């Protein structure tokens, strides 16, 4: 069955998923299908109306910790029930080795979202991962311009071809080997959802180069950045979409690598002391799931406290310089801050 209407819902930090949404609209244009592109950050799910059967829904989001980020999962969970067909797409960290495209990993992104939508009555008409440049320069160097342009050019054409195929009524899914790999690494996404995302939320800070323009605060898609002591402060709501870092005009937002390394060492000592006194003064907590949960909770509690202390100490020049020069994102060798080509988000 050919589709006459395409409704695309996307979440995007630095522009990759927005680009994919745009490329899918080009496929709709070729197929003479009506198309609308919707940023989920500006949508109230209660206002979404049911659509006729010849409308195809598309959800596009980056992969965070081998899964759709919480903001997209919550949107899909709140999406009204229906019987339409749905296409799931993600943007994940692609790479080039010579001219060979090294694909990223989707993990649980398609697994959880497919399950939610099936429960709501939808059927999955297509699944498409898109390997675009990673924006997560907190944990790896930025890609060079050649790689960025190459990945965009390669996958723009693939997305348009995919879009035309599903709009014509074909069902297009990922290969079995890729599905098996995603299934194997899916459990990691649970750990990231429960703890990892909160850890990364507390790695950002602004240097003295910040001119108080508030672009990061106003444009955070999940409203995770607030002002404390007249400076941006990252709360645990941060999903590390990197929009703030890639769009900061002063490039004042850094990742505190030195602080995080020091904190991990210090927190292991604090946690060890806590359990030593707890086990000896109250009762022994056996190794296993309960102890792991307590250790994780303590780690995040201490992290929140330490991040607040660092935020206060950065007002002092010596400490601010110490944090800055122990942050890899400060140095040119770490690479450029990434924003998807031709898609500024301000």
Describe the fold and architecture:
By secondary structure, the protein is α/β, with parallel strands linked by helices. The protein folds into 2 domains: 5-189, 3-Layer(aba) Sandwich (Rossmann fold); 199-334, Alpha-Beta Plaits (2-Layer Sandwich), CATH 3.30.70. The chain is built from 10 helices and 10 strands. The protein has helices at 16-30, 70-78, 109-119, 145-167, 176-201, 215-219, 243-247, 257-281, 289-313, 317-325, and strands at residues 5-10, 34-39, 55-62, 85-97, 100-102, 123-133, 204-206, 225-228, 231-234, 253-255. The strands form 3 sheets. Strands 1, 2, 3, 4, 5 and 6 form a 6-stranded mixed sheet that branches. It has a two-stranded antiparallel sheet with strand order 7-10. It has a two-stranded antiparallel ribbon with strand order 8-9. α2 (70-78) links the parallel β3 (55-62) and β4. The radius of gyration is 22 Å and the shape is globular. It starts with a strand and ends in a 21-residue tail after the last helix. The mean pLDDT is 90.
Notable traits:
346 residues, alpha/beta, Rossmann fold, Alpha-Beta Plaits, 2 domains, 6-stranded mixed sheet, 10 helices, globular
- Class from helix and strand fractions: alpha/beta
SSE series? EHEEHEEHEHHEHEEHEHHH
Number of E strands:
10
Please identify which CATH superfamily of the largest domain we are dealing with: Flavodoxin domain
End-to-end separation in angstroms reads 39 Å
Question: What percentage of the residues does DSSP assign to strands (E)?
Answer: 15-25%
Main sheet overview: 6 strands, mixed
């Amino acid at each position: 069955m050919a589709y006459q209407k395409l409704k695309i819902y996307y979440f995007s930090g630095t522009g990759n998923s927005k680009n994919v949404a745009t490329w899918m609209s080009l496929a709709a244009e070729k197929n003479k299908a009506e198309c609308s592109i919707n940023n989920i950050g500006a949508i109230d799910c209660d206002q979404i109306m049911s659509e006729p059967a010849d409308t195809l829904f598309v959800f596009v989001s980056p992969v965070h910790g081998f899964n759709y980020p919480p903001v997209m999962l919550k949107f899909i969970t709140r999406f009204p029930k229906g019987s339409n067909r749905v296409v799931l797409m993600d943007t994940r960290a692609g790479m080039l080795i010579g001219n060979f495209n090294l694909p990223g990993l989707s993990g649980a992104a398609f697994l959880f979202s497919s399950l939610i939508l099936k429960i709501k009555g939808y059927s999955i008409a297509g699944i498409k991962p898109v390997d675009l440049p990673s924006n997560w320069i907190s944990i790896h160097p930025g890609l060079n311009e050649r790689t960025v342009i190459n990945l965009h050019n390669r996958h723009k054409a693939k997305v348009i071809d995919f879009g035309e195929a599903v709009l014509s009524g074909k069902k297009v899914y990922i290969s079995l080997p890729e599905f098996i790999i995603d299934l194997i690494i899916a459990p990691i996404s649970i750990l990231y959802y429960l703890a990892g995302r909160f850890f990364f939320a507390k790695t950002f800070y602004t240097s003295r180069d910040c001119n108080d323009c508030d672009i990061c605060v106003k444009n955070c898609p999940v409203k995770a950045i607030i002002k404390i002591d007249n400076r941006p402060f990252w709360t645990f709501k941060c999903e590390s979409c990197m929009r703030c870092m890639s769009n900061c005009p002063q490039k004042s937002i850094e990742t505190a690598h030195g602080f995080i390394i020091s904190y991990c060492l210090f927190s292991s000592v604090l946690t060890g002391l806590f359990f030593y006194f707890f086990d000896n003064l109250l009762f022994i907590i056996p190794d296993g799931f309960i102890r792991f949960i307590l250790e994780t909770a303590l780690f995040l509690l201490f992290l929140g406290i330490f991040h607040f202390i660092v935020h206060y100490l950065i007002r002092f020049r010596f400490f601010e310089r110490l944090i800055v020069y122990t942050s890899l994102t400060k140095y040119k060798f770490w690479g450029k801050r990434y924003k998807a080509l031709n898609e500024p988000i301000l």
